[in-house]
Structure formats: structure tokens, C-alpha cells
Hints:
The protein is of the alpha/beta class. Helix content is about 30%, strand content about 20%. The chain has a single domain (about 10-235), classed as Rossmann fold.
Amino acid sequence: MPELALPRGVDLVVADSAQEVAGRLAAAVASELEQALAGRGRASLAVSGGATPRPFFEALSRKALDWHRVDVLLADERWVDVRDDASNTRLVRAHLLQHQAASANYVSLKQSGDSPEAGLAAVEAALAQVAWPLDMLVLGMGADGHTASLFPDAPELPEALAPGGGRRVCAVHPPSQRQARVTLTLPVLVAARSVALHIRGEDKLDTLRAACEHPGDIASMPVRAFLKPGLRIFWSP
Ligand SMILES: O=C1O[C@H](COP(=O)(O)O)[C@@H](O)[C@H](O)[C@H]1O
């Protein structure tokens, strides 16, 4: 078990392999979605992109659920063509929206427009069909402590973190990143009924340790906003 001083009420699930942790996360997510479907007849799931989630998507896609009643969306997206290798939509379509999950209602954060600002109204409109608040949110985390596309160096970060703005998405242009992005805003993300953080590797544990050290400074490491009771962290080496 890695040495980590996590805040009270935050659970850490550790497995020996990425495959095993993916299976455990998929089981936890399927259970949350099942409960939501039983409770309100629809369910909503926001997932993250990047390199980590692929085996989790594969495992979740085989879970028997009433997927046609599940809204699936991303917590953040790069403003690139959906055929581009960097597209999170491409990743979700290839690895999650298949097998049992092929009938899920995918709501894309990438709409037409040359920039995220140009497409933002269309993204907000698409998001109106999602069953809010999110039933399940699966976040990733970067080495800089970003989660979703809440990047510490994004000039638009204050806007994306602001409580009570009523906006679900925000366009961001972090200088550290090659592509402009759209991200769900912090108020929408923290309102999720259940939140998991899926991370892999020793470097991510170091980032998590740094995040736990000064929990109040969210702008420096936005992942800190989620280090609170109820969070489940899924980690493998
Ligand atoms: O750019 C992104 O990075 C983070 C972490 O990605 P990983 O490749 O280190 O797993 C991800 O959570 C976020 O959704 C994505 O857009």
C-alpha cells in the first residue's frame, strides 16, 4: 500500500496491474449507474480522456446495463477533429461505446466551430439533454495537478472554477498544452453524486502527495477540489 496522507473519507483502491484496477473501477461505476437507473430511470456518466482510461473503458463496455438510458460524456475535450489521435471523443467511441455500451447516448463536447469559443453555445445546447447532476464522474489527473481541463496555467481558470456562474462548460487555452480545450466547470463537476479518480504510476502518486499537502490552494492544483469525503481513488503502478 503506498504511503499517502489522504484526507478523511477518501478511499484508496490499489491493485497490482492497470488491468485489475480497471476491472474494479468498472464494477464500481456499473454499480453506481445501476442504482441511478433504478432510482430515476436515467443515468449520467462523465469520463476522462488521456492514456489511463483505455482498459477501464474496455471493461466497462462489457457491463450489462440499460445503456440506452445512460448519457455518456467527457469531463473535458481537446478542440480537434474527432478523427484526430488527440481526440478524447475518438478514444471513447473506440473503447467505451462498443459491446453492451454501444447503445449509450453519447453527448459530445466537440461541436462545429473553428475555436472552442465559436462552438461553446452548441456544446451548452447539447449538454441540455444530459440527466444532471452527474451520477458518476471518473476523473484523471495530470502531473501538474490538473483534472478535467482545469489547468493551473489556463488564463480562463478563475472562470472555470467560479461558483454559481450557471455555466456548464468553459473554453480554455493553457499555454502548457498543444490544443485548446473545453472543460466542464468546477460547479458541475463537484455536484456529481459519485466521484472516482483513476490514476496510474508512481509519478501520479507524487502529484497526489503534493496535492494533499496544501489542500486549500485549488488554483495551483485543481484536483484538490475533489479531495474530500466520498472520493474513491483507483491506483495501480
Ligand atoms: O489531458 C488530459 O490529461 C488528463 C490525464 O491524462 P493521462 O494521460 O495522464 O491519463 C486527463 O484526465 C484529461 O481528461 C485529459 O484531457
